[in-house]
């Protein structure tokens, strides 16, 4: 059974998810597990955005998608702490302010 967007939103707003998310972050010592595996450090920091809200640095990721595997939604083995950058990379999201130009029109190096 696949969950709808509304069902997923309801789940992510639930107290059960909030408690589980906090427990997983504590288990993972508030570190991105993917960065840690590559020898880097990505920790949660208390930094405010322009609206004076805490910037999200770390998220708890479902290894098997919530929409496709709702029965694993609170399974510790299916959850890991990731930094936002790694999470976006896993999901194929690119929010770069300066996307790389593949074929630049001018190349001053060739003369």
Automatic annotation (TrEMBL):
GO terms for molecular function: endonuclease activity; nucleic acid binding; zinc ion binding. InterPro entries: HNH, HNH_nuc. Residues 19-88 form the HNH nuclease domain. Keywords: Endonuclease, Hydrolase, Nuclease. The keyword Disulfide bond does not apply. The keyword Hydrolase applies. It holds the Pfam family HNH. This is HNH endonuclease. It comes from Staphylococcus coagulans. The lineage of its organism: Bacteria, Bacillati, Bacillota, Bacilli, Bacillales.
